[in-house]
Design goal:
alpha+beta; Immunoglobulin-like; Sulfite Oxidase, Chain A, domain 2; 2 domains; five-stranded mixed beta sheet; five-stranded antiparallel beta sheet; 23 strands; about 15% helix; globular; binds ligand MTE; binds cobalt (II) ion
Length: about 425
């Protein structure tokens, strides 16, 4: 593989500014509505400067500008038979930085959202413990707590893309991912209170939703970096995300991050629950299945340009995306403009944290020629995000889960972008 780290020079500031002026000029001359808008632009005094606006607390809980009404979670109607056992996708193409706004985090429910009254919430810890315990929410809030930013990726993210390019938009191909700040109690602290018996090797985590969704987690992981979180992005968890408490299992597939957490049972072997036998296993070419494949390997995606975020003008263009790894920190992200023949190192800007998203940028001067955009993440263990062809060689074509193959976007001459695959 070529790895010449070719760096195209960033266009000069002068060039950039003249390009920008050209672009807004072009955007303004389209139709009567646009012409009307001209009245609001400098040197005129716009309407919003001539009258008082809403006062404070008219909007007691803030919401985005009405002009951002398109930036929403979306689902794919044909994907699931019901809305209760379904998924919505994060609008990655419209976001920047690494933190996903709470209201835009993708949702994955097996039987809808449980609406739990915090007064009636209980978390039981039992099984191979010295002292079975039942915590109220108030009890949980009396423990020392920590703040951590983590990425959560559903194992099924990009699952529809195993057999080739399918869905036109990174919201749909990669939007089963979010990265937020959690506040919670380390799971090991809660378990220590109950006293884990020496014979315990596994932990069952069960939700209080109608599916009572449950997963087995090795005790080693439970005692390592897991949290019982009550807050996300500074406020109480949203109902969609497991209010009032969810399990945070850093770096592991989203399915084990049990929401509406109501039961933790210690045992000496896994429970072989539905979600770790019939589902969330990976069917191999020889008919056998990989099981308990918890860790999410390094992955990345260019969020803009992308099918829902086409290129609007020639000239200076910011390519941007997200990268993450369930094995630690992202060390480097490379970007290719020619389908993986040549790579150059992208610029990571902002926080670089363990098992969290990083935001990367690669600026280019687009001359209107077709591009085959790709990104690949490399994590601190040295793992390099594979191509889809490499992935299929190892895992066959039957899989749904754990597709971390390199994504390709075709930027066409008119700036529109399409989901394609190159071999
Ligand atoms: N927990 C319960 N109790 N019920 C569920 O349906 N879905 C799981 C997990 N925890 C689920 C659950 C799956 S498959 C994923 S990917 C994540 O929650 C999704 O978390 P989110 O809805 O906060 O994005
Ligand atoms: Co999932």
């Amino acid at each position: 593989m070529d790895d010449d780290n070719e760096s195209k020079p960033i266009p000069s500031r002068r060039r950039f500014l003249s390009g920008a002026a050209g672009l807004s000029g072009a955007a303004l001359v389209g139709g009567a509505a646009r012409a009307e808008n001209l009245k609001n632009l400098p040197p005129n005094v716009p309407e919003w400067t001539r009258a008082l606006g809403d006062g404070v607390a008219v909007r007691p809980y803030g919401h985005p500008s009405k002009y951002e009404a398109n930036v929403i979670r979306r689902d794919v109607s044909w994907l699931t038979a019901s809305k209760e056992s379904s998924v919505s996708f994060t609008p990655l193409h419209a976001l920047d930085g690494i933190i996903t706004p709470s209201g835009l985090c993708f949702e994955r429910h097996h039987s809808g959202i449980a609406e739990i009254d915090p007064e009636d919430y209980r978390l039981i810890i039992h099984g191979l413990v010295d002292k079975p315990l039942i915590y109220t929410l108030a009890d949980l809030k009396r423990f020392p707590r920590v703040n951590r930013i983590y990425v959560l990726e559903c194992a099924a993210n990009s699952g529809m893309e195993w057999r080739g390019a399918q869905l036109n938009g990174c919201q749909y191909t990669h939007g089963m991912v979010h990265c937020v700040e959690y506040t919670g109690v380390p799971l090991r602290v809660l378990l220590a209170e109950a006293g884990v018996k020496g014979s315990a090797k596994w932990l069952l985590a069960e939700g209080a939703d109608a599916a009572a969704m449950s997963r087995s987690i090795p005790l080693e992981k439970a005692l390592d970096d897991c949290l019982v979180a009550t807050h996300m992005n500074g406020e109480m968890l949203r109902p969609e995300q497991g209010y009032p408490a969810r399990l945070v299992v850093p770096g592991w597939e989203g399915n084990v991050w049990v929401k509406w957490l109501r039961r933790l049972k210690l045992g000496d072997e896994p429970w072989f629950a539905r979600e770790e036998t019939s589902k969330y296993t990976d069917l191999m070419a020889d008919g056998r299945a990989r099981r308990f494949t918890y860790v999410m390997d390094a992955k990345s995606v260019i969020t803009s340009p992308s099918p829902q975020a086409p290129v609007r003008a020639k000239g200076f263009t910011v390519i941007s995306g997200l990268a993450w790894s369930g094995r630690g920190k992202v060390k480097r992200v490379d970007v290719s403009l020619d389908g993986g023949r040549n790579w150059r190192e992208a610029r990571i800007d902002g926080l670089v944290l363990d098992k969290a998203c990083v935001r990367f940028y690669a600026e280019t001067d687009w001359n209107g020629e077709e591009l085959l955009l790709q990104s690949r993440a490399i994590d601190e263990t040295g793992y390099v995000q594979p191509t889809k062809t490499e992935l299929r060689k190892i895992r066959g074509a039957n899989s749904v889960y754990h597709n971390n193959g390199i994504q390709t976007w075709l930027v066409k001459r008119d700036g529109e972008v399409e989901n394609v695959e190159v071999s």
